[in-house]
């Protein structure tokens, strides 16, 4: 068992290169393995697996509990003693003093915890409220294995690599696999804010139990809406964010921030600098394609705030060089193209720091995406149209190729400058056509998020995809709020946070996300819409905080996002590589080759409206080659498929 646990933990050595440990109880049939990235208490007192003082609990823990000092003082007042200064020791003492669930509710932080109760012979797996830290679980034939990444489970005593075609279908729609599914049929993701307690691995696993949920935060916030004015709301949020930032600046290693120059990361950096006696280290990457380059904006913010700023200008070739590494880095398929610049900026930051704060979460909490504002307006309006009129309009919009729409935009630029500034007009017009074809509110919002509108057409045996991502839910919430809640429970943990976790951990960098402090999330749901969206723009309240630190001109600009010229790459330098993957015989039995070829030919003919969908297939094929092909050395044939 020790050798197996060691092999599994070695598979994720990049997540913890500083130390490793194994604990085994052969009688109970359990082994815990750990790789440590030392952040707090760098001494041997922070070594894991760690046993509680009484011996009742043994823990392995990935992440940080930021309020551990406060909890420690409270526990000391109740008679608890401590050997070192790590948050791991505080977690164990809290479990002994208050019980696992009650203690977990007290934690402020990001965490994936496995704790063995030696007296009850039970294993509890715990994941933080927002799903910042990952937790994969495998169960088959009396075996339970778990880990921060699937590659650890693949290195376990056994792993059935049967693919779940339902999960594959969801992936092709959304560009990620929504929880609780994983790409493998016998593995799953523990849901955010859940505890799974396992007493007998030889029977079906019990359902995990929530200790917190975004749905409850939303309903509780709706029942206790903030009644103060603008100044009070801004002051309250700034107090909460400042505390969240300060807590996440605790580290015994060098610390900095990833700065894009956008509202979210600029707000985090501004609050960091206001709380620091010396310049905060900030990091940005820039690209040679102007429309994807925010480096100048980040540089201006950094200069105004007085940070110790590093930016690195990269060429398209630098970014393309990352692509062969993606399948190893993302051991579950993920096709969010911003994974490339995310990895590059993490790699840059790791040259100088071990911890970096990010601005993730601001859009989902405070209405920052255009699809919330414009999407709500369009969906509400289009629902009043007769169905036949919607379908005729959709056909008209999509009958014109994206390239033609973009040429029309360019020709209008001298006469109508506003129209000329619309980025990716052709793709947006085709997206609008897809929205018009949907026959419900949920369907319309799902169409906005879908790379493939009908992935079941592509996947052999894929069938219908469960509505993992919808604008349904609590009907007391407005449509925009339902969109935000849907994103907080799926897109945020399964795409954005998964992307940041894998990209940062690939270079042994700990990424911390202060905006997703659960106290900030709960307060955001107490805020009426006017504090989020005002005058047709999102994130009003974050803007008001940022205005206190930087000039308005640096804040009020068009949202760019963090991406790459995907369609240009697929049609240019990646064309041969992508074509070989797309048309490979390896997809037989999984994807319908006729559909793949049709879409690839359409793309090469100049229709880039499905570039994201093409990229999803390319990334899946690269993943399949790396993890499933017998030639890869990682495992068995990809022919094993579970149809749902």
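-> sequence recovered:
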């Amino acid at each position: 068992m020790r050798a197996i646990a060691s092999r599994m933990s070695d598979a994720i050595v990049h997540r913890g290169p500083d130390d490793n440990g194994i604990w085994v109880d052969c009688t109970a049939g359990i082994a815990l393995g750990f790789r440590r990235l030392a952040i707090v208490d760098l001494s041997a007192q922070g070594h894991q697996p760690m046993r509680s003082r009484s011996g009742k609990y043994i823990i392995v823990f990935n992440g940080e509990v930021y309020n551990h000092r406060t909890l420690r003082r409270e526990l000391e007042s109740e008679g608890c003693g401590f050997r070192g200064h790590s948050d791991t020791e505080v977690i164990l003492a809290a479990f002994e003093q208050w019980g696992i669930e009650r203690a977990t509710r007290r934690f402020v932080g990001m965490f994936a915890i496995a704790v063995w109760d030696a007296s009850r012979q039970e294993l509890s797996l715990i994941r933080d409220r927002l799903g910042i830290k990952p937790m994969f679980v495998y169960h088959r034939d009396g075996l339970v294995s778990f880990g921060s990444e699937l590659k650890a489970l693949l290195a376990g005593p056994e792993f059935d690599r049967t693919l779940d075609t339902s999960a594959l279908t969801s992936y092709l729609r959304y560009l990620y696999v929504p929880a609780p599914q994983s790409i493998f049929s016998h593995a799953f993701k523990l849901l955010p804010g859940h505890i799974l307690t396992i007493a007998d691995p030889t029977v079906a696993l019990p359902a995990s139990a929530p200790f917190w949920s975004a749905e409850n935060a939303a309903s509780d916030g709706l029942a206790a809406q903030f009644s103060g004015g603008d100044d009070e709301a801004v002051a309250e949020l700034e107090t909460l964010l400042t505390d969240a930032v300060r807590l996440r600046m605790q580290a015994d290693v060098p610390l900095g921030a990833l700065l894009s120059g956008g509202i979210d990361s600029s707000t985090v950096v501004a609050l960091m600098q206001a709380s620091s006696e010396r310049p905060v280290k900030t990091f940005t990457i820039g690209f040679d394609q102007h429309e994807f380059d925010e480096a100048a904006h980040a540089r201006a913010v950094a200069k105004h705030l007085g940070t110790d700023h590093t930016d690195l200008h990269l060429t398209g070739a630098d970014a393309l060089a990352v692509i062969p590494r993606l399948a190893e880095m993302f051991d579950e398929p993920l096709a969010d193209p911003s994974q490339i610049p995310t990895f590059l900026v993490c790699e840059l930051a790791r040259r100088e720091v071990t911890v970096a704060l990010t601005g993730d979460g601001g859009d989902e909490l405070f209405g920052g995406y255009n699809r919330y504002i414009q999407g709500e307006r369009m969906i509400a309006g289009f629902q009043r149209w007769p169905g036949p009129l919607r379908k005729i309009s959709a056909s008209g919009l999509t009958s014109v190729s994206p390239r033609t729409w973009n040429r029309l935009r360019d020709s209008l630029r001298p006469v109508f400058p506003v129209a000329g500034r619309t980025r990716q007009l052709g793709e947006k017009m085709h997206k609008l056509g897809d929205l018009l074809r949907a026959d419900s509110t949920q369907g319309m919002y799902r169409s906005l998020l879908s790379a493939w509108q009908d992935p079941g057409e592509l996947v052999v045996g894929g069938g219908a995809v469960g509505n993992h991502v919808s604008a349904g839910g609590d009907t007391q919430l407005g449509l925009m709020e339902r969109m935000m809640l849907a994103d907080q429970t799926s897109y945020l943990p399964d795409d954005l946070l998964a992307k940041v976790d894998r990209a940062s951990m690939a270079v042994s960098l700990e990424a911390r996300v202060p905006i997703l402090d659960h106290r900030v999330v709960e307060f955001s749901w107490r805020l009426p819409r006017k504090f989020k969206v005002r005058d047709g723009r999102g994130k009003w309240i974050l803007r008001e905080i940022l205005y206190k630190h930087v000039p308005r001109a640096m804040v009020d600009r068009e949202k760019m996002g963090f991406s790459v010229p995907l369609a240009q790459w697929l049609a240019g330098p990646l064309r041969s590589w992508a074509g070989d993957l797309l048309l490979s015989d390896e997809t037989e039995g999984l994807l319908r080759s006729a559909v793949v070829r049709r879409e690839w030919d359409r793309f090469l003919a100049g229709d880039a409206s499905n570039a994201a969908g093409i990229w999803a297939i390319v990334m899946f094929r690269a993943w399949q080659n790396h993890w499933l092909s017998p030639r890869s050395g990682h495992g068995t044939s990809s022919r094993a498929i579970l149809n749902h």
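The first helix runs from residue 2 to 10.
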